[in-house]
Amino acid sequence: MQLSKDDLYERIKDLKSKKEFEKEIQNRYDHYDGLLDKDTVALLLIDELGKNTQGMSKIADITADSDCTVRGTVSNIYELHTFTRKNGSEGQVVNLDIHDETGTCRLVLWDKDVQHIQNNEIQIGTKVKIINGYTKNGYSGLEINLGRWGLLETDSTQTTERQHVDDTIIKGTLIEKQPTRAFFKDSGEFGFVTKIKVKQESDEKYITVWDKKVKELQKYKIGDKINLRNITIKQNGNQSELHVNGQCVIEKSK
Fold it and tell me: How much is the CA Rg of the chain, to the nearest whole Å?
């Protein structure tokens, strides 16, 4: 779960009045042209003022009911469970143990994130990075969940090298834009990521969009026909993931 701007203000109320805080958030919100919601803008401001506690954490330092970004190595993978929700829909969950040099904790993957196990992208010994995960006390102690704002990355050295598809153009209709997420890069700077869905004649594709391309994407609306050129393909197990980064060109289709 991501903290609200009101929660974040508590960390800097000795530095800025609430009125100054809200005015600065509004100015930055306008500057980003709606790229980020006001809670994420507040997080950026808190970080600049040196009051952010959501940087890279060691497992031994994380506590329940907080957000965290952490690295670890998978030491155990438990049995995958399928269950039925109250509304009748089917869900899936799998638990993993991860560890670093300071300790061990449980990582819980739900629904679409279970595919990381099913396609063998994550195995025992795989190094993972959880970005903006949220923590809570579970049946087996402290656990990390991804939730709406979380992002899971695996060590790129364990997957096939990324390839640029210079001669391929994905053409389709933009039918979904997920909320933008802010996260800390290894350099300590903020990065941005979102996912979009593009409908083509024969199928629909999910595509991950990074950093400057996230802002560029904001000028396109649901229903617009777009072309994507120079998309990066990342092979994870038997599945191909599509990524839009600095090499990609996004343009409106005629």
Answer: 19
